[in-house]
Amino acid sequence: MKTNDIRKMWLEFFEQKGHHIEPSQSLIPVDDESLLFINSGVATLKKYFDGSEKPKSNRITNAQKSLRTNDIENVGVTSRHHTLFEMLGNFSIGDYFKEEAIEMGFELLTSDKWFNFPLDKLYFTVHPNDTVAFDTWVKLGVDPKKIVKLEENFWEIGEGPGGPNTEIFYDRGESYDSRNVLELLEKDLENDRIIEIWNIVFSQYNCMPGKRDKSDYDELPQKNIDTGMGLERMACIMQDVETNFETDNFMVIIKQIEQLTNVKYDDNKKPFRIIADHIRALVFAISDGVLPANEGRGYVIRRILRRAVKSAYIELGIKNPFLELLVDIVIDVNREFYPELNHNSEMIKKVVNKEELKFLETIEDGMEMCESMIDVDGKITGENAFKLYDTFGFPIEITEEIAQDKNVEIDIDGFHKHMEEQKQRARANAKGAAGMHMQSEVLQNIETASEFVGYDKLAVLAEVKLIVENDMIVEKTMDKVASIILDQTPFYAESGGQVSDLGYIGNNKVISVSKLQGGQHLHTIELTSPIAVGDKLMAQVDTDFRNKVTKNHSVTHLLHLALRNELGTSVTQQGSFQDQSKTRFDYSTLDALTEEQLLIIQNEVNQNIQAGYDVISKEMDIESAKAKGAVALFGEKYGDVVRVVEMGPAVELCGGTHVKNTSEIESFYIVSESGIGSGIRRIEAVTSSEVKVLERNLVGDIEEQIKGLSAKVNNGETIKTKNALELMAKLPRLQAVTNSDYEVFDLAIEKLEEKSEANKKAKAAKAAQQGANLKNDILNAMETVDGVNKIEFTAEDINANEIRNLSDEIMNENENLLLVLKIINGEKIQVIVRSSKSISSEFPANKIINDILGEYGGRGGGNPEMAQGGASL
């Protein structure tokens, strides 16, 4: 059975059992700072398990792409370690529980309609106290001798939902290991014979670390099922191959590597496995918008790519970029379930090629650096080897290879010592991974009906249906702050990057609005008078605030369109934020935008604003929306029926509030474009009246700069106009929006620079005249004794560099000269002694200077022809 067929059969089975098929989500977690990447099938479903969002079905199944790098050094070494893998899962959120989950698992694995495993090939583990799981397996026909009770069969990650689990193993036979199967399971011995294929977690407790015994944990009111089956492991068993790497989805990549290298897989399997695994991870991660960088997700991707290149470079002799040539193979075998890979293929190749070239240059530079670090004893120290690795990204394996070629020693133990110290520092600084938290049970269970009418109305008479204070439902408010649900509301709840509305309910101020899992809008209010359930109050949105936020949200759609038109459809939104003062848009891209590109994008947005497109919002099924070309936004969750917002050529799925016509936005100006890490860049912009505010502030700053520079040049100083010019660099794009004339600033700077240059020339002329006068004074002090010219001269408050330059002129113009110059500045004396070569043996400068400075307790340095030094007076 092919890998794609296994995935398909899994999803079909659980769909027939009433499960909703949840699409595989991006590898980038949404609203989950505890994870760098999605690392399991349940990671994208946390919002359902913790009650923060209500699923469309309490039965869910998925095939979720996941990425882990905690065991990256084992990838290619063992049979089953991967960076990227797929986890097949079925989940129950307060629906079926232990017995039904086990019965479904048994049917899927053993029925001849499905995977058709022989029962005698399967083994099971349960927690010793979980008699229900044990008895259910036995009832289904499992031999009790094949059920192993293990204390570690309990799943928990910190505080939150957890519980016992049961695991299912497949026995591949004695040819893989002749030891007793039960012993392998009981002692958890490393082996390739007994393979875990499925783990079913019974989430029935609220785990509380610190309690003496798991039996003290409280039972959850809503019990859940969370399962996981590794697709790659399952393929290995179903295709009866030795390791996961011989399965169909890996072998097509490995065959391509064989063609590119003229090396056979069977001759050296490890590098083939590393490259095949890592190119899969790169293709999926880059497609989801992760770009190589020096920190965070981008660093992980950079590390994966470099490990693949290093393996090819050292073990397969590939010295040129080649990973790009494997991208199409990965996309081809995965396009059926992951069609987005095909859309992003060119972008993926570009990123991979650019990063691979960069690393190959690093290797070449590092080889030169490595050779320079061979010390006088013919060794490379552990500290230097670690510096090459940590600072310059130079692989230790290549350092070892160079050391071997040069027949020098490398302190590999010292290198590993530094590596361990770094790991300890990283562990000390690492944040603890967050477990799955519990949302307030009160908020989870609220089913009060409420309707959002704020797309069309900004004020309605509404009835108070429910009040929450201090995590309790009450009939009447008693506190200064409360949260309420209305039968209908015009208040937009914060979501999709748009802040919530502000305003009043009665005479009570609304300070925030959030959305509950049932879709109700929960209004947090500051009370000026008590309210009770059943009260009818006027709910009034702050229209000025809403209008400003709406303009900033609507323009984000036009900005997204302009970015895709300029940079290509591979641009992926990575988040957005809109409030009353600005809009912010994060997107994945390789390079910073040029000033020319920013102007093109800004102009396109403003053209679409001025075009006056009516903004049309329609609800339709998701397939119709896709056919219409609607763009889905990063991080948004969409149901079967979606809201499509059209603004002329911009068509997106969006639940936010918008202007009625794009002309209401008035104008758009990009304030800044910057990188925020991991290959993601950010545009911050303003609209409407905020453009005028920004213009006033910017013009004011420029005027202050010019005023300060004018005062300096009028005082005869020379100036640098860099800061003013940096501010003025923002004016051309601003001028395109405001049509203001900023030529006065260019003229002012031009005149200031002319006057500064005149001041500079005047200063130079004055200094030249002073130098000439000083030179004449020094020469007038010359005496000639026995054919030797001698000058001893003392100057005060003179720059030492100026007089040093004069000494060069005087020495060049006079023969047989002994020149002693003393410069006194405050409490310090500096001395310069020069002696012509013809007399330097008789009058050595380095001896004379020490005789002079000795009187002040100082010393100088130099040679017989020139010496200098200083002392305190």
List keywords for this structure.
single chain; 873 residues; globular; 6-stranded antiparallel β-barrel; 9-stranded mixed β-sheet; alpha+beta
Q: Give me the count of strands.
A: 33
Give the strand content.
15-25%
The helicity comes to: 25-40%
Termini separation (Å)?
94 Å
Mean of the pLDDT scores? Answer: 89
Poorly predicted segments: 430-435
Task: Walk me through the structure.
By secondary structure, this protein is an alpha+beta fold. The protein has 25 helices and 33 strands. Helix content is 39%, strand content 24%. Helix 2 (46-49) links the parallel strand 1 and strand 2 (59-67). Helix 3 (98-110) packs parallel to helix 4 (131-139), helix 8 (269-287) runs antiparallel to helix 9 (296-315) and helix 13 (382-392) packs across helix 15 (412-429). It is globular and about 125 Å long. The N and C termini lie far apart (94 Å).
